[in-house]
Amino acid sequence: MSISGEELRLLLKALAFSAHKHRDQRRKDVEASPYINHPIAVANLLCNEGGVQDILVICAALLHDTLEDTDTTAEELRAEFGDTIARIVEELTDPANLESDERKQRQVQRVATLSRAAQLVKLADKVANLRDIVERPPHDWPVERRQKYFSWAKAVAEQVRGLNPGLDAAFDAAYARGPV
Predict the structure, then answer these.
(1) Which residue in the list 68, 80, 94, 168 is annotated as catalytic?
(2) pTM for this one?
């Protein structure tokens, strides 16, 4: 795989932007890992396990939580990264006014209607989250909550099964480890 200088600059810009926006956020594990580890894991999954080489998809993966979890606006993303990346991130962003259960049900219902790029990021996001729940579970999540997350993630993943064999395999392996 060869990446152009322009693509490399865009990738590093997305990484730096995401790191800056998530700079004060931590994951819910005992160690309170830096949040930026999550978008990096999603991008890594896409590239190294899913074989995704589309730089716009990889950049969207790095930015996928910026609209939902930071003060970033869609206009800001569009100005910094263009229409395509901004659109993918917008597709992945849940409305802020939804309750958790409603948001989760909406994701199951909507994932099949997303663009292929957004579906790839969504599937890689679920794999990364399942791995984190097994390896570094949220400190305040009992086993039942972890099991519920696994069930919901499977419902989401089933809607896009067959999209990417590498990501399907990664999901199946992560799911098989289950929460304990």
Answers:
(1) 68
(2) 0.96
CA 164-169-173 angle, 5° bins: 150
DSSP alpha helix (H) spans, the chain: 5-21, 37-44, 55-63, 66-69, 74-92, 100-110, 116-135, 143-158, 165-177
pLDDT one-digit tens code per residue, 99-156: 888 989 999 999 999 999 999 999 999 999 999 999 998 989 999 999 999 999 999 9
The SS3 of residue 161 is: coil
Instruction: Check if 68 is active-site.
Output: yes
pLDDT of residue 180: 65
For residue 48, what are the contacts with CB-CB under 8 A and spacing of at least 6? none
Q: How many whole angstroms separate alpha carbon 135 and alpha carbon 22?
A: 22
Catalytic residue (one of 69, 76, 90, 168): 69
Half-sphere exposure of 136 (CA within 13 A, CB side): 15
Catalytic annotation present for 6: no
